[in-house]
Amino acid sequence: MTLDFFALTLLIPLLSGILLSFAGERHWAPHLNIIASAATFLSAAGLTAEIIDQGPRFAFGEQFFIDSMNVFFVTLTAFVGMTTAIFSDPYMKNDRSHGKLTPARLRLYKSMYQLFMCTMLVALTTNNLGILWVAMEAATLTTVLLVSLYRSPASLEAAWKYFILCGVGIAQALFGTILLYFAAERILGESGTALLWSHLVEVKGQLDPTIMALAFIFLLVGYGTKVGLAPMHNWLPDAHAEGPTPVSAVLSGLLLNVALYAILRCKVLADGALHTDFAGNLMMGFGIFTLLAAAFFLGRQRDVKRMFAYSSIEHMGIITFAFGMGGPVASFAGFLHMTMHSLVKSAIFFAVGHAAQKCGTQIMEDIRGLKRINPLIGWGLMLGTLAILGMPPFGVFASEFMILTHAMKFHPWATPFLLLGLGVAFASILAKVQPMVFGESEAKPLPHAPAITPVFVHLGLALMMGLWIPPYLSRWFLEAARMLG
Amino acid sequence: MSQAVPLYAQLINLLAAVILLLGFAMLAQRRVIQLIDLFALQGFALFLSTLVVAVKTGQHHLFYSAGLTLVLKVILLPWILHRLVRKLHIKGEVEGLINIPTTTLIGLGLVIIAFNVATPISQLSSTITRGTLGIALATVMLAFLMMITRKKAITQVVGFLAMENGLFLAATSATYGMPMVVELGIALDVLVGMVILGVFFFQIRDQFDSLDIHHMEQLKE
After folding, report:
1. How many domains does chain B have?
2. What is the model's pTM?
3. Which of B132, B155, B178 to mutate to test the interface with A (most CBs of A within 10 A)?
């Protein structure tokens, strides 16, 4: 086995995570975090080029499987991982000079950050549904201590809730996986291949429908807890609001995607076995309910990171609904929306993080006049908010428009709910963000200049995808959407 | 059933019943130390039942997973838990949100639901242990109930681990266990999770001077 792009993509975060845990206060440690993330992204890009060129491939026997669907998530994960690492460098230094963090905790943060990236990449690329579960649980474990990094009472409570709720959720997913294995073993035998997705998908028509229906319910509820689907979403706003902002950005922009990816892989199998829309209907129901629940909680928030966490829940609801509708168009829109949400939401968290640091608070009423303090942060937050609310010409508009028109055509009952949810969310968020950006303030400058570039790189990409999706990217989305059936 | 049930099947069913009974005992137990002992006992019953299945079917990897159960759930995890209890000076009774008789009654209802859900599936199974799938699901649900109704952080963790026991029983009873690599991964996750929780307990105690999660009620909505 020669060292290839795939092996590099997994090994770089793993090794640098271990290295960083020993690095301590060395002056090169923050640079290593950024360099490792950039190297991961480069090798992920190399892997993508390879997959586009040569089609799906296996790695390490059949244990890993990379196709057009997951390579897209791998690139996105590595990209946001890189920009978040760039953003987090000045952010964490500022936190340190404010006395919120000690060197030991900074070391923990950097090391766990890389290991977290590694677990997500393993979850995305593994062919084994059991390993997928293991990696998802490992992703929770690596982030629990990051959520409680500040050691404040609220952050400890958030981390505890995160651990217990996601632990319970993921236990349901394990039961679902056991049922899936049980259904598969009757056909594929006990050769150990019965949990390999590439084998399962070939025999999906023969899997027992009764078992598969039950397995999918457990898997949806289990992984859905991590996606943040209502009513299992309780951990999400707490973990996002109380953890450090870079962690909020990767939780929102990446972890939710990975959990949704796990559901999608299982849906393909459930659809094949059931020959009905059972799985899709279930996802549509959860999606709509999540959208509405989040939209109505949005208006009651006072903490800016909490509010945007609810906005993430709302968008996850929309995406789940889109994939629930199924078909190439809706799935295409779902993938596009996932990409847009990752980019825009992490950009917003970057801007919010700096803003909260400048004003020394996360309470929205106390954050005023961002445009005056730092025009770039102010405009970054305003544009990001407009983008996430689905204003043209940003990419979120394109995907939401596609989802809405598709829903009107095939599931007209859902249209009023979708419009209501989107409308309420629009009004609540805009009304709160506007006074934060405009208005008066006399906050002091920060000791370390914030990294603004990632915010505008993300927003620029979202703008570009709203106006023009590069042909290779749309081909890639289409191929992934076709795989979902 | 009119024909005689073979001895090994009787043994497996008996052990499964013991596991379920221990699940109820944990639900009703007020003291932390005894709760941990009950958890270790449940792990031991799980080990025995896995061993019986392993001997009967001759599946190699089941021997390994039985060994893993013995080391992890009977020795290592209870040891860590006992250490934590000693170091953190957790004493006295575990306060429940609902009183014990009510909890037990709810648990009874859950068992009935679990059996109803599991029956159609276990009929499709060809393993010698298929009857125990319902018990496994019931164990998971009882542990879940324990997590919901208890206020102390450490009882929630024991509930979490008991849930893992139930899932493990489900895996052995429906399919003779998951592939080895997956089982190792799950064991690793549980162990790492336990270590992280240990760290976490100290953080909670330092911050709140108590391990009662009642104090953690700031975050709402």
Report:
1. 1
2. 0.93
3. B178
